Amino acid sequence: HSILVAAGKNPGLIGTVYYLGRTKMKAHRTTPESLDIFKLFDRFRSDGAQAVVMEVSSHALSLGRVEGIKFSSAVFTNLGQDHLDFHGSIDEYRKSKLHLFSLLEEDGTAIFNTDDPTSEAIEALHLKKTITYGVKNRA
Question: Is the predicted pLDDT of residue 18 greater than 80, yes or no?
Fold first, then answer.
């Protein structure tokens, strides 16, 4: 979001704490329900937004809240132990996170952290456009 603002763009933001267009709205969950997402998109467009930055939770991916959305880019930071109560296992948690990359536009870009072991699973998807980053591993 900050990068787009610095580049002179007017992005909408959907995140854990708030949703931001011309008006800041308190968030009730990280990724809203599907209908609410599309209402926010409409509001952002009416406010002149040129892009939307959205945090997409593993819960939202598992529950289908973002189905039908095609992302121009997707960023994966890391996989921890924090949502195992919902997913039941680290493998199910990883599978839900990997689903985000299936929602990329055909020429979309996958951006991911090579320091996280899940990066191997992302690489195995053979996505067309990738950008990697890392501190310990080669990016």
Answer: no
